């Protein structure tokens, strides 16, 4: 990104922006000079996962444009848990678990951001919340919010409408987050809070609290909540969370997550999770058929290099290519059966690889069948006549090479 580019326009083009409290005001504030921003992370696990990656990449773009970033770890608020759009309370963690989790996620940050104390630093809200008295909190914060207004927020309203329990502990979470924003403005001159779309109400409360207390104008910006094209929550796979720490998920498996993404997600993921110019992103996203696999490899390379470094990325790619280059077990396909419009589902059933045609369809719908490293969604379509040498994969561990006979 060049100095004369409109940063908000760049971020919007890449798909980072969902809502903003004041587009014109924020654009002007960003153009006037360094604007400190923050993004919060509750320490509910000892690693971040791909669901956090959109926020890390947004911080990375802001920092590269010269804006200082604060990574707020919720050492205090993790003990409560954000109830936003959840039907049940999060498990309560003790101080030892939270400290262990903070150590784990701290290592994720340094791979994406410069943490030199000037352009980037970690802060923990336990610094100001642990010593804050209840009556002092009510006087400083609670008196500025009405229960009527809080009950109107969608996340709380949905929880109550479904008749799911909402503890007073959780009900107060939004006030704590609002106080975090005001305290960061006071301590670090922070004026911009980032968050997912589900954090909109919490962010607005912080902006409003600063206004009511006579503080500086604060801004809020949310990112779209991401789901994959097949409807799964971003950061989840059939095998579980896609972790950013190698101790939780190997760089090879991380690389494969991106390499095996849905065709419909390639352009969007390249824009969000790589730093390629948008012209190149659009070119790669426009590729079709087998050529689109090359775009997926580029996506996997870009995402893995950022998360684990260039050496790990190269090793992961070589391991994937090595698997393809190895002599895979052969699966014979009759030319005569191909002429009878043999489908992939029939081929799998006839070779005992699935228990029924419906089982093959279910496996395909779950993303578990790939032909030539391309996901197959329709297993009832007749197979092509030129499939000699094609690779066939069922899940991550069963692979064959098709051979005509």
Automatic annotation (TrEMBL):
Keywords: Aminoacyl-tRNA synthetase, ATP-binding, Cytoplasm, Ligase, Nucleotide-binding, Protein biosynthesis, RNA-binding. Its EC number is 6.1.1.1. This is Tyrosine--tRNA ligase. PANTHER family: TYROSINE--TRNA LIGASE, MITOCHONDRIAL, TYROSYL-TRNA SYNTHETASE. CDD domains: TyrRS_core. InterPro entries: aa-tRNA-synth_Ic, Rossmann-like_a/b/a_fold, S4_RNA-bd_sf, Tyr-tRNA-ligase, Tyr-tRNA-ligase_bac-type, Tyr-tRNA-ligase_bac_1. It catalyses: tRNA(Tyr) + L-tyrosine + ATP = L-tyrosyl-tRNA(Tyr) + AMP + diphosphate + H(+). A motif ('KMSKS' region) lies at residues 233-237. One of its GO terms (molecular function) is ligase activity. Signal peptide: none annotated. L-tyrosine binds at residues 38, 173, 177. Homodimer. Pfam families: tRNA-synt_1b. Belongs to the class-I aminoacyl-tRNA synthetase family. TyrS type 1 subfamily. It is found in: Cytoplasm.
């Amino acid at each position: 990104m060049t100095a004369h580019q409109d940063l908000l326009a760049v971020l919007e083009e890449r798909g980072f922006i969902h809502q903003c409290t004041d587009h014109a005001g924020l654009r002007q504030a960003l153009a006037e000079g360094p604007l400190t921003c923050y993004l919060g992370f509750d320490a509910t696990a000892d690693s971040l996962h791909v669901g956090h990656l959109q926020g890390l990449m947004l911080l990375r773009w802001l920092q590269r444009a010269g804006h200082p970033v604060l990574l707020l770890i919720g050492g205090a608020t993790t003990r409560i848990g954000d109830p936003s759009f959840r039907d049940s309370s999060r498990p309560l963690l003790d101080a030892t678990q939270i400290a262990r989790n903070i150590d784990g996620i701290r290592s994720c940050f340094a791979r994406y951001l410069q943490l030199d104390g000037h352009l980037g630093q970690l802060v923990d809200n336990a610094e100001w919340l642990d010593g804050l008295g209840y009556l002092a909190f009510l006087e400083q914060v609670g008196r500025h919010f009405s229960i009527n207004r809080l009950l109107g927020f969608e996340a709380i309203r949905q929880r109550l409408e479904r008749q799911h329990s909402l503890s007073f502990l959780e009900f107060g979470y939004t006030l704590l987050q609002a106080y975090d924003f005001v305290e960061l403005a006071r301590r670090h001159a922070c004026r911009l809070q980032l968050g997912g779309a589900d954090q909109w109400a919490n962010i607005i409360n912080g902006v409003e609290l600063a206004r009511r207390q006579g503080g500086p104008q604060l801004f809020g910006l949310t990112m779209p909540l991401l789901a994959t094209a097949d409807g799964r929550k971003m950061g989840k796979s059939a095998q579980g969370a896609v972790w950013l720490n190698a101790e939780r998920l190997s760089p090879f498996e991380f690389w494969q997550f991106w390499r095996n993404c849905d065709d419909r997600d390639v352009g969007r993921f390249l824009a969000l999770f790589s730093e390629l110019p948008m012209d190149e992103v659009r070119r790669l996203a426009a590729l079709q058929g087998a050529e689109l696999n090359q775009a997926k490899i580029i996506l996997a390379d870009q995402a893995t290099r950022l998360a684990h470094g260039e050496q790990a990325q190269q090793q992961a790619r070589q391991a994937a290519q090595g698997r393809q280059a190895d002599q895979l077990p052969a699966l014979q396909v009759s030319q005569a059966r191909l002429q009878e419009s043999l489908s992939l589902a029939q081929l799998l059933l006839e070779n005992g690889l699935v228990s029924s045609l419906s089982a093959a369809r279910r496996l395909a719908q779950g993303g578990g069948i790939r032909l030539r490293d391309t996901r197959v969604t329709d297993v009832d379509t007749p197979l092509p006549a030129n499939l000699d040498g094609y690779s066939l994969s069922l899940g991550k561990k069963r692979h064959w090479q098709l051979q005509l006979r």
